[in-house]
Specification:
The protein is of the alpha/beta class and 204 residues long. Helices cover 41% and strands 25% of the residues. The chain has one domain: Vaccinia Virus protein VP39 (Rossmann fold), CATH 3.40.50. The termini are far apart.
Length: 204
């Protein structure tokens, strides 16, 4: 009951309800978009961990189409193609590439089930983010963008360096819409450059 009361008092929760968004998380992507312009009109976006669909609504509002990946069923949205499955499954890449040859943006707001043990939750978050990065490397067009949620902790810098090996621009961003007590942050990466391109340049 107390949890419900807190949600009712939550500004972004109330705003999501009044504006028709499925999740308060919609405002996190809106802030990221306002600051970094990661999604353009006409883009094809893969959204990992997409349920309940708050980020998908923002993507469609930006006049982009989406492929939504989640273990849960997502209520239909026009312009969204669902893939039912776990983002850690090796089948996901083939399913995405069965729909499109490549995409313009990959987003992931996925989070692990929380155990209450912070070091474990942080490690699981980094693990999910690493799976998202591997999918991104397989499906993203050169020059494309990537946004992924991670929990802050001792593995954060190592993962950020890994992302930086593939993108020309990488920043950590904390949206105002994140809850004050949350340790989540978002890595915003732009202008994807496949590693083989880096190696080719180094060999010249």
């Amino acid at each position: 009951m107390k949890s419900l009361e807190k949600r009712r008092k939550d500004y972004y929760y109330r705003r999501a309800k009044s504006e028709g968004y499925r999740s308060r998380a919609s405002f996190k992507l809106l802030e990221i978009q306002e600051r970094y312009h990661v999604i353009r009109r006409g883009d094809v976006v893969v959204d990992l961990g997409a349920a309940p669909g708050g980020w998908l609504q923002v993507i469609r509002h930006l006049e982009a189409s989406a492929i939504a990946v989640d273990r849960q069923r997502i209520a239909p949205l026009q312009g969204v193609t669902p893939i039912r499955g776990d983002l850690t499954s090796p089948e996901i890449v083939n399913k995405i590439l069965g729909i499109v040859d490549a995409v313009d943006v990959v987003t992931s707001d996925a989070a692990p089930n929380l155990s209450g043990a912070w070091s474990l939750d942080h490690a699981r978050s980094i693990d999910l983010a690493a799976y998202a990065l591997e999918i991104t490397k397989c499906v993203l067009k050169p020059g494309g963008n990537f946004v992924v949620k991670v929990f802050q902790g001792d593995l954060f810098e190592t993962f950020t360096r890994e992302v930086s090996a593939y993108f020309r621009f990488v920043k950590a961003f904390n949206p105002r819409a994140s809850r004050k007590q949350s340790a989540e942050t978002y890595i915003v990466a732009k202008r994807y450059t496949p590693l083989e391109n880096h190696l080719t340049k180094l060999s010249r």
